[in-house]
Design goal:
Elements (H helix, E strand, L loop, with lengths): L11 E5 L4 E9 L2 E6 L3 E2 L5 E2 L2 E8 L9 E5 L24 E2 L4 E2 L4 E5 L31 H14 L5 E7 L1 H12 L4 E7 L7 H15 L16 H15 L2 H8 L17 H14 L4 H13 L9 H5 L6 E7 L7 H13 L3 E7 L7 H4 L1 H12 L4
Parallel strand pairs: 7-10, 7-11, 8-9, 11-12, 12-13, 13-14
Antiparallel strand pairs: 1-2, 2-3, 3-6, 4-5, 6-10
Amino acid sequence: MEIIGGADPVPNVSLHTMNELIQATTVRRGATWYLVAEEPFRFASGGQIPRVEVAYETWGTLNAERSNGVLILTGLSPDAHAASSKENPEDGWWEPMIGPGKPIDTDRHFVICVNSLGSCKGSTGPSCTNPDSGDQYRLSFPDLVLQDIASTAQMVLKSLGIEQLRALVGPSMGGMSCLALMKQIPDISRHFLAISTAARAEPFGIAIRSLQREMIVRDPHWQDGAYTIDDWPENGMRLARKLGMISYRSEPEWRKRFGRELQNRYNERLFGMHFSVESYLESAARKFIRNFDPCCYLYLSRAIDMYDISEGYENMEAAFADIRLESARVIGVDTDFLWPPHQQREICQMFSGHGIKCHLEMLPSIHGHDSFLVDYKRFCPAVGSYLDNLG
């Protein structure tokens, strides 16, 4: 039996989720573990799939009490490889943040990063094959909400024998998924670190993501989800990614980095890319086109828009009432207009209003929403100062 950084996974384990008892096995491929349940997984929407896999990676050692777990739930596009390891020495998407002596210190914490259900980065999603039909799910994949992502994270924790985490860490969409998990199990974690996230989607962000989805489905190669590797909706994905990149950063950063620099004043196309910022967006978009499945992008994007922690409650205050934490830290960026400062303040106010010790830290970063992925000079001290002092 293989050891996960000191944790001893049971090859066959019964996982009681919100709706059912699932028999699951755990297998490892490289640095990534896969929780495989060969039984139907039921979605909050009422739909189901015949089997589910959940990809995750771990770092550090789970202590004897299984009390030092730190779970990271991700934004829309990252995989489970948040940091390098012996099994996979390639840098992860949050490399400066995770490791021995780093802000999320693997000498103290047993760190778990779960790839979201609905993704194309290891966990089951619309791009996966339906074992009943032999075809990719595509648009037959059930309606996905963040509560479903929380349910699969819950499965991973149960497979590791972790009843309560030391901390939940959620950047961007991951913060919403963390809130959904805490609504399912109010005492799942003693502490919570929310980063550039929100308790519900608001009209501006919904408008941006709605336009991104329209760009994809209006591409003639979309074919109602019947695209192929050789006939990919590249133009729609390219434009959607460009719009996303614009919303992830800030106007001051664009101005500082590119100004009005011309790359080719006499471009052969009258309305071609004359400015450096245009070429930057084009290059960034083309790297993304084939690295993320269009259907997965649509499903996860819509799941963000559909999330509202107060749904079914009289108000926001009532929705937070049953979450049981010892403390919370909310970190945001003053130039983030996609998940703006007032949404960070709202989360902290809700926790504080229910007697949870919460501190709001707004960082003066120029990089907008993506600051937590690029401005490590500011984010590393902010994350470390919170997690280093947790019991």
